[in-house]
Amino acid sequence: MRCPEILIWKPEIVLHEGAEAIVTAGSWLGKRAVLKYRRRRRYRHPDLDRRLTRQRMAVEARVLSKLSAAGYPSPSLMLMEPNKSTMLLSRIEGKTLYDVLKTENSSRNILHSLGVLIRRLHELEISHGDLTTHNVMVSEGDLYLIDFGLSRLSPELEHFGLDLQVLRECLGSSHTKIHDAIEIVCEGYIDSESQNSDSARAIDVIERFHKIIGRVRYHG
Ligand SMILES: Nc1ncnc2c1ncn2[C@@H]1O[C@H](COP(=O)(O)OP(=O)(O)OP(=O)(O)O)[C@@H](O)[C@H]1O
Ligand SMILES: [Mg+2]
Fold first, then answer.
1. Which of 27, 66, 186, 216 gives a 20 to 30 Å CA spacing to 9?
2. Does the global pTM surpass 0.90?
3. What percent of the residues of the chain are helix, what percent strand, and what percent coil, each to the nearest 5?
């Protein structure tokens, strides 16, 4: 039987061609989507490369389904083909936070909202693992987190603190015009009061983050 045309993935434009992934925008089943293909890393042994790719896809799929169930702003997983190293995700129409911070002058509200969003993620017992401004998208003023291949599903203070440290380094190296950016994110993290929020826990995370900064300074 001929496959109806609507079932076919229709690529439109390559959005990103990075070291790890090629991301193409298009449509699938008539819905706007992106195809994320994890490319082979030739410097790695093929077995190790295959294992790491599968691991990252599996963790990304698990996290995305948990986030979807919680109504968290992130792409939804539409289809996954581990043998082809591809995932189809719903498309977030917008720009990366990286681009937004480069072009917009008033970024305080966005950074505060980012703190709120990170706290929500941590309250779901998920650490992101690669929290840079390329992995946050802004769509009509709303923030979404993407790229969960290095995430962990465990409530470890150290990993939560490290998320903030990775973001601090990114803001300090790529967005130097906003002096107190990470402080604004931390304010959002602390201020946020969601339904199941635990403010003592949020303070513990910020304290751990400060300890990590101290360690980084001490060891260089
Ligand atoms: N669901 C999505 N909707 C819209 N754009 C997306 C989506 N997912 C990814 N992108 C775009 O593709 C870029 C790369 O995606 P992602 O962060 O998932 O890959 P990556 O693992 O970081 O790739 P690499 O390590 O090769 O840079 C994002 O920064 C964003 O611009
Ligand atoms: Mg990324």
1. 66
2. yes
3. 50, 20, 30
